[in-house]
Specification:
Blueprint lengths: L2 E5 L5 H10 L3 E5 L3 H8 L4 E2 L3 H5 L4 E4 L4 H11 L8 E4 L5 H13 L3 E4 L2 E2 L1 H7 L2 E6 L2 H12 L2 E8 L3 H30 L3 H8 L7 H4 L23 H18 L4 H18 L7 H5 L6
Parallel strand pairs: 1-2, 1-4, 2-3, 4-5, 5-6, 8-9
Antiparallel strand pairs: 7-8
Helix pairs in contact: 1-2, 1-6, 4-5, 8-11, 8-12, 11-12
The structure holds nicotinamide-adenine-dinucleotide.
Length: 295
Amino acid sequence: MTTIAFIGLGNMGGPMAGNLVKAGHTVKAFDLSQASKDAAAELGVGIAASAKDAVAGAEVVVTMLPAGKHVLGVWADILTAVAPGTLVIDSSTIDVESARKAHARAAERGCLSLDAPVSGGVGGAKGATLTFMVGGSDEAFAKGEPILSAMGRRVVHCGDAGNGQAAKICNNMILGISMIGVSEAFVLAEKLGLSHQALFDVASSSSGQCWSLTTYCPVPGPVPTSPANNEYKPGFASALMLKDLKLSQEAAQAAGASTPLGAAAAQLYALHNAWGEGGTDFSGIIHLLRGREGQ
Ligand code: NAD
């Protein structure tokens, strides 16, 4: 079994570190928040006095932090304390440019590195059913795959450094756009006197079929497990969708890609967040499209 350092024990990182312990690994972890450390300690995670202390003697390091600036800051700190050859994995969702910078710094230190963002949310983190989208060398992937498998159900190697983050933001741009499309169709159906169930029955077995409709239906009723049936409690918070859409637009601008629907989705989610809905599920965007009517 492996000695693993885990930095960032929040909603996702805490349960992920707990699953590494369950799989038999020795985990030494650190977070700035006492509450996060206490919650992780209850899962059997060893708590270190600092990030540097956590990585001392670790064969693998995992970071799960809010954004690119946190990852670059923590990696700058810990890379001075790890042995060359250590594998450093970042599972946060961050911008592609910061991810590639982090890889370059790890390489300067003689370390292997992976960007391995996840989908599956807090439920997936707790149940070890996450999907990992992984960027990095074949050597780093071979070493990291068994570790990631202890925290998830699927581990997909997407190519070289940064490609895990690229896959994540492309996927979530599809998701944001498709949720708005599905929501618009339900709003139009309401105006035309077509019931939610009738639209669902037709579209779920026709060319309009997609995950936003059949798994995450934005109106209560047709899919009993969707957040719409639970007062739009997340699920996947609108604030996180906005974060990912902004990352997709930054990447599109840097790469010269034209993503007009992604840009429109980012604007609509910015408005949804400005209405104070950042903490509700992202499928609650249907309220904005109704002009709040029928909430
Ligand atoms: P969170 O805010 O709950 O946790 C982040 C943790 O990082 C906090 O506990 C914070 O104290 C800690 N932290 C910040 N700076 C630190 C530092 N310098 N040293 C040590 N610890 C530090 O966030 P989360 O929901 O766990 O999300 C983590 C990442 O996963 C984000 O990038 C997010 O976009 C991504 N993500 C989240 C979800 C989700 O559903 N929550 C789903 C997929 C991906």
